[in-house]
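Supplementary Methods S3. Input chains for the assembly prediction are listed below.
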Amino acid sequence: MEEMFYTLQDFMTHTKGVVYIIMGAILVLMPLFWRFLTDKDDQKPTF
Amino acid sequence: MLQDKLLIEKPEMTPFNIVAGIILLAGGILTIMRFAGGLGAVTNLDNNYPWGIWIGFDLLCGVALAAGGYVTSAACYIFGLKRFHSAVRPAILTAFLGYALVVLALHYDVGRPWRLPYPIFFSQGTTSLLFEVGLCVFLYLTVLFVEYSPAALEWLGLKTIRNLVVRLTLVLTIFGVILSTLHQSSLGALFMIAPSKLHPLWYSSYLPVYFFVSSIFAGMSMVIVEGGLAHKYLKEKMDQTHLDENQGVVLGFARAASLVMMGYFGIKVIGLAVDNNWHYLGTGWGAWFILEIAGFILLPAFLYAIAAREKNMKPARAAAWITVLGVVLNRLNISVVAFNWYLPASQRYVPSIMEIGTSVFIVTLGVVIYRFITTRMPILFEHPEYKTEDNH
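Predicted structure tokens for the full assembly:
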């Protein structure tokens, strides 16, 4: 069921809040994913 | 050894040659039909769908999949990852042919090819995104031609001009990255003019960002796909350097593509959240959207990650094919499938067999020209006369 928003303020507060939570999750998950990608590498620079 | 690489076999009646010949012949007939009879003679386009698969596939997919050129040359010359050097020439050639065929395909859609210079030289629509795309493609095609030309000049033995062009490599690479950033994103921005026509799951104010970011992993995947095909069918044209560096290129690109795809997934989810489009995920369109994201973004990203982690080429090659298909699906979803999504089935656009035939003709033309060039010019091997210097 789609939520009802009566003002733009309500809509922005809701969507911004969700985006902030997702951003927080991305900030935590991306370094973990990078570790998953690289943890079997030799300990030397890859460039 | 050079003689072996440069040896040109006489055309034979191989299955590939026969099929390609038939397709090119049919394409020639379709070309005459299109330019003699107009769009109505060969397409199912109408006022609801002025753009069909010639834009959705030939142009949008062609430009995205040709992104390997700027990605590979930027990795090698700007980021200094010289271990990708052997992949630069094939990637530049693929990009050059890709863009040249995009321009060719555009003629079929736009018509009146003799007026091609008009938007650039006579009547600039500086407030139009299409003008920006046209200008960027015009400039970038020129850049790609110059970037590709050392191979042709080595083949022709024009050493002086070749050495002059090679000095421009870094400038051209930087110019290429700037132009690609501009027009890859602008192609996405084109659809921002139609917020009421494109399904909300695909429409987003982030469309330019989506198109640009997806072009990065599309380009890398295309380099892996094209490298795999070249290894299978043109192995005798490859030198030892090319063969030795192949694994590093595939695994390096797999890692980078994996990370970029995860980032892309992140911004796609943010796009959903910003517009509060979650409720559409429970519909049929939502299932189609989830298939695109889970099957053609998350799955290949995970396969790429496994490949990079385990140093295994097989998952990377599979992921590259899935990603290429996923980018094609995404571009077709935005330009055709989810466009005018609310129309009844009877009014929806389905490409005619002749439109599909023309697209197949253009792709085949690209493959034939690619094979013509790689069997003659130093693309998959280094010309021995230029091997000692920093080859480009």
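The interface with chain A takes residues 79-81, 252, 255, 258-259, 262-263, 266, 269-270, 273-276, 279, 305, 308-311 of chain B (CB under 8 Å). The radius of gyration of chain B is 21 Å.
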